[in-house]
């Protein structure tokens, strides 16, 4: 802390401003570094599960999205290109959660249309507010400046539009959480009880964490000075990414267990042959001249049809 008594009065506000900027800069660095450590630790400790459940699992859309999302946060945090990648990562993360909840609805396309509409609206709104934020910073004189005293670039204006991006994300998470609760109340299923319970457990942790962190970021975006604008942003990104990765891996593990328990094809390619269930029915067929013939019909059902056709 500078000795303010030895500083000319006209320079005191400048010194206080520099000290405030420096404190916020250090806080941003430490929180971002903590987020990077959390993301890296989660990636390393869960890699065996990732290798077994994802890389050795079947190929598909969700698998690709998961792998891109899982590693994009590390690229962004360690290569210092967070802003653009964070926006992409948030959209991918919300898409993964939407797919998981859709599976809980037995791939109901009517429900998917509602969730997809909400996802598109949220993504467009988030990107729109982010674009408005960038435009505000670049379009305002002194909106982004370099301070020699602390050797850092700093915001000269607080882009309050960013709060809209966080608010749209909160609204989307509340909608998806409502879809999960509605599913549990309206569509109980004995075969997926454990899968549902896991999604509720991990999903509740995810939604509580995401809504809380996004609320904190929204409040900071509304009330904080420009220098404190990004203190929690990238740390939040890393923590939320960790939560959604944990959610997806746990769901994949349980789906693999369910596939194995009913002899379904899927991740377990080592199952040697299709399992057939045979059933016999007796039918009475009307023939001409009012003659009735009784016959036996046998059916063979291939139970290798996957109960989770769109998931890892």
Looking at the structure, the CATH topology is Rhopdopsin 7-helix transmembrane proteins
Helix count? 8
**Name of the CATH class:** Mainly Alpha
User: What is the name of the CATH architecture?
Assistant: Up-down Bundle
Spans of 5+ residues with little confidence (pLDDT < 50)?
A: 263-287, 291-307
Report the strand count.
Answer: 4
Residue share in helix:
55-70%
Short descriptors:
Rhopdopsin 7-helix transmembrane proteins, two-stranded antiparallel ribbon, single chain, two-stranded antiparallel sheet, 312 residues, 8 helices, mainly alpha
Overview of the molecule:
With 312 residues, the chain is mainly alpha-helical. The chain has one domain: Rhopdopsin 7-helix transmembrane proteins. It is 64% helix and 10% strand. The chain contains 8 helices and 4 strands; from the N terminus they run αααααββαααββ. The chain has a two-stranded antiparallel sheet. It has a two-stranded antiparallel ribbon with strand order 3-4. Keywords: Membrane, Transmembrane, Transmembrane helix.
């Amino acid at each position: 802390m500078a000795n303010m008594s030895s500083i000319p009065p006209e320079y005191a506000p400048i010194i206080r401003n520099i000290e405030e900027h420096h404190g916020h800069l250090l806080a941003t660095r430490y929180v971002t570094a903590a987020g990077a450590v959390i993301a890296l630790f989660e990636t390393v400790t869960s890699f065996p599960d990732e290798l077994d459940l994802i890389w050795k699992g079947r190929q598909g859309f969700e698998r690709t999205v998961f792998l891109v999302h899982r590693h994009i946060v590390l690229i962004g945090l360690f290569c210092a290109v967070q802003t653009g990648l964070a926006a992409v990562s948030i959209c991918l993360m919300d898409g993964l959660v939407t797919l998981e909840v859709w599976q809980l609805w037995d791939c109901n396309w009517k429900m998917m249309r509602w969730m997809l509409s909400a996802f598109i609206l949220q993504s467009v709104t988030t990107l729109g507010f982010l674009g408005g934020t960038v435009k505000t910073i670049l379009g305002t004189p002194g909106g982004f400046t370099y301070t020699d005293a602390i050797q850092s670039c700093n915001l000269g204006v607080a882009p309050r539009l960013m709060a809209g991006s966080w608010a749209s994300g909160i609204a989307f998470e509340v909608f998806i959480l409502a879809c999960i609760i509605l599913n549990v109340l309206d569509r109980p299923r004995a075969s997926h009880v454990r899968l549902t319970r896991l999604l509720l457990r991990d999903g509740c942790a995810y939604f509580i964490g995401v809504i809380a962190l996004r609320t904190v970021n929204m409040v900071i975006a509304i009330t904080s000075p420009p220098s404190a604008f990004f203190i929690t942003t990238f740390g939040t990104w890393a923590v939320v990414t960790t939560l959604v990765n944990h959610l997806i891996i746990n769901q994949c593990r349980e789906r693999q267990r369910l596939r194995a328990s009913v002899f379904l094809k899927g991740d377990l390619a080592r199952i040697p042959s299709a399992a057939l269930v045979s059933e016999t029915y007796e039918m009475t067929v009307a023939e001409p001249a009012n003659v009735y013939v009784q016959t036996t019909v046998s059916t063979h059902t291939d139970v290798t049809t996957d109960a989770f056709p769109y998931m890892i």
